[in-house]
Amino acid sequence: MEFNQGGFTPPENNYNNGAYSYTPYNMPKFIPYDVWNREKARIKKLSILAGAGVLLFIVFSSVYVGIYTFIGNMLGLIGGNATDAYTAVTSSNEFLFIFEILYSVFVVGGPFFVLGAVFYKKGLVGTLPMGKPLKAKLLPLVVIAGFGVCLFGNIINSYITLFFEMLAGSELEYSFITETPDTVGGILLFYLSTAVVPALIEEVAMRGIIMQPLRRYGDWFAIICSSLVFGFMHCNLVQIPFAFIAGIVIGYAVIATESIWTGVLIHFMNNAFSVTVSIIYDIYGMDSWQYKLCDAAFYVFMIVGAALAYIVIRKFKDKPMYRSPLINQGRNIFGQVHPYSAKVSNKSLYGAYIFTLPMISAFAMVCIETVITMLYM
Predict the structure, then answer these.
(1) Which pLDDT value is given to residue 62?
(2) Is 241 inside a domain boundary?
(3) Residue 19, in any domain of the structure
(4) Facing residues of 32 across strands?
(5) pLDDT score for 9
(6) Is 90 exceeded by the pLDDT of residue 170?
(7) Are 324 and 216 contacting, i.e. CB atoms less than 8 angstroms apart?
(8) CA distances from 34 to 6, 255, 324, 333, 341 (A)
(9) What pTM, to 2 d.p., does this model score?
(10) Could you tell me if residue 5 is inside a domain?
């Protein structure tokens, strides 16, 4: 670690030198107040921009759906062949799949791609790990392990969903999709819109644009904070626990392998499995052997994934997680408080990131969206 006139320079490590290396450092005797104040301001700036990205996503989502609804209402007033044609097109699953693909690209990705440009302009950007995964031979193990732990998160989420449905008195529905397509082209579009495109866009946004700059303050700090933002992106309290757990799993996998593609694969497998179960349920029914096979596969992948997660952690133990050299207890080597020492802890770092107006506003919007869904959906 180095202190200089410009503030704080973290040691060379896996997130800023692009190489698989780790440079040990000596923990500081104390952190000067001016250094901590500068770094705290930087953390808050990252939080403000990330929170603004979530709020902008919510605005984009409302506008996107609002335009769709407005056009339908206007044509409904006009009537005639145009209205019939519009209704026929928009009621098809193919249209809804394309609608969701565009939604992922422009509504989900758009705000965070803009955010990435702002990060770059303000010197806050981190290096996106777009290269080949480290220890590529272990990639199948990492992906299956990540997928299995995500399935465990699905179980937790199912109980939380049940709780909210009991409060609402009805089943909660968050998707535009009404029925499973019955054509090969429709099924391919289903996978593309639900598994492929969201996995790519969301991983670049969350584990790339949001997580990488935060690694300056520790890898686990970056994983936890980016997972929180990922949870907010799902816009309801029902799905936040699953998204948070999945974010932690995928974030660790991306940092361990130093490749965003690992996260994309885990994210894709999780979504693709859900699509497959949905298709089999709609075509064959819950009592079919096909559906029971999917149910068995769910628990097999979850158990195997948990076992592989332990193996993966052992395999990557020589790839230590970067710790922030800012962390100290405000005391020098003799155990006395230095007169110019700022007491910095993990609590201080998380507090600086979580408690900003945009981040609190994003959480408030998530609560509002949840209440609206429970009352009117």
Answers:
(1) 86
(2) yes
(3) no
(4) 341
(5) 56
(6) no
(7) yes
(8) 10, 30, 17, 20, 9
(9) 0.87
(10) no
